[in-house]
From TrEMBL:
It comes from Bacteroides cellulosilyticus CL02T12C19. This is Uncharacterized protein.
Length: 116
């Protein structure tokens, strides 16, 4: 299964499912369409593969850090604010969300290493 999402500001997202693995690629190309809307309750699930890429494949993915990832995602995604708030997250808030999730994932990885 393969899905390609065309987004504005010169980026596409390609999602490809191979067996039990999902690959998500951010592809730079001509601008087209509009941004993806991600609800507050979907944010963690949406960001998980991006955070894993940031943590484990940063160099191959061409990601320089959390703010660089936040900027790239801001071009293709609108993240809705919380349940009782209207509007979308600003760049700083996206970056903070990425930092917090990365910290959470790193702590889980360390706990797994300790248990081994």
């Amino acid at each position: 299964m393969s899905i390609e999402l065309n987004c504005k500001d010169g980026y596409n997202i390609e999602i490809e499912k191979k067996e039990d693995r999902i690959n998500i690629l951010l592809v730079e190309n001509e601008a087209f369409g509009e941004r993806i809307l991600v609800g507050a309750e979907e944010r963690k699930e949406f960001l998980t593969p991006w955070i894993n890429m940031l943590m484990h494949h940063k160099k191959e993915a061409g990601i320089k850090g959390t703010m660089d990832l936040a900027k790239k995602l801001e071009h293709i995604v609108l993240f809705e604010k919380g349940k009782h708030e209207k509007g979308v997250l600003a760049l700083k808030s996206i970056n903070t969300e990425i930092i917090n999730l990365r910290k959470e994932f790193q702590e889980k990885e360390e706990q797994v290493k300790i248990k081994k």
